[in-house]
Amino acid sequence: MTDTVDATPSPPTVDATAEVFASRVGVRSYFSTHFLAAAEDAVERATEYENRVSGEKPRFSLAHKGDVVSAIILSAAFIEAAINEVLQDVATTHETEKIAGVSIDVRRGWAGLWEALDRGSVGRILDRYQAALISAGVVPFEKGSEPWQSAQLLGRLRNHLVHYKPETVFADDPEKLVVQLRDKVGQNPLSTNVGEVDGWLSGDCSRWAVATARAFVGEFAAKTGTRPNYQLVLDDLRTKNP
Questions:
Q1: pLDDT tens digits, residue range 127-175?
Q2: Which one of 61, 90, 183, 224 is most buried, counting C-beta atoms within 10 A?
C-alpha cells in the first residue's frame, strides 16, 4: 500500500530591492531679453515725463534720472548678456533655436573661444563679439564705423555711471564724454549742466542707448546666422506679461 501525500509546490522566496532615481529638471534663463525690455520701458517713461513738463522751467526729477540711467545700464547689460548666451549654449551643447543656424565647425570654434574666455569671466565685451566673428570666418565690425562707434560710446557711458567719480567741470571746458555724446543725443531738458554728462542724460539719450544695443546685437546676428533670444520671444513676452 502506497501512502499518498498532498503537496502544493511554492516558488522560492526572492528578496528584491527596487531603486528609483529622481529625475532632474533644469531651467536656463536668458536675461538679455529682460534687460532689453526693461530698458525700453524706461525709455518710454523718461520720454513721457519730458513731454509732460515740456515748456516748463528745467527742474530735476529723480524718477526721470533713474529711468534714463537704467536704460543706459540695461542696454549695455543686454549687449553683454546676448553674446554670453550664444557662446554658453554652444559650449554646453544646449540646443536652442538661437544657434540652430550655426554650423558644426563654427560651434567648435565658439566652444573653444568660450573656454579661452574662462566662460565669460575675462575679456572686453565688444572684443568678445569681434573674436566670435573672426572665429566664424566672418568679416568683423569696422571699428571706425557704426554700429561699433556708438556701442563703444555706450560702454564708456555705462562705465562712467557705474564707476562714477565726481569732478568739477565748466561749460567752456566740458568732459570728454560730453563732447562725444552731444554728437549723438539731444540735451537733457531738465538740466542746465551742459558741460557734464548730467546735461545729456535725456530721454533721447536713453532712446539712443537702446537703439545702439539693438543695432549692434542685430548686426552680429545677421553676420552669423544666430537668432538672439529677444528676436524669438520678446513680442510674445510683452503680450503675455504686460
A1: 999 999 999 999 999 999 999 999 999 999 999 999 999 888 777 788 8
A2: 90
Residues 100 and 68 sit within 8 Å (Cβ to Cβ): no
Measured CA distances, 161 to 9, 71, 206 (Å) = 86, 12, 13
Chain-centroid distance of CA 66 in Å reads: 19
Grid coordinates of 167:
569732478
Residue with cell 554670453: 84
Strand partners, 173: 170
Q: Could you give the CA distance from residue 56 to residue 120 in angstroms, rounded to a whole number?
A: 47
pTM, two decimals, is 0.86
8 A C-beta contact, residue 60 and residue 194: no
The rounded distance, in Å, linking the Cα atoms of 227 and 220 is 10
> Is the sign of the CA dihedral 207, 85, 219, 139 positive or negative?
positive
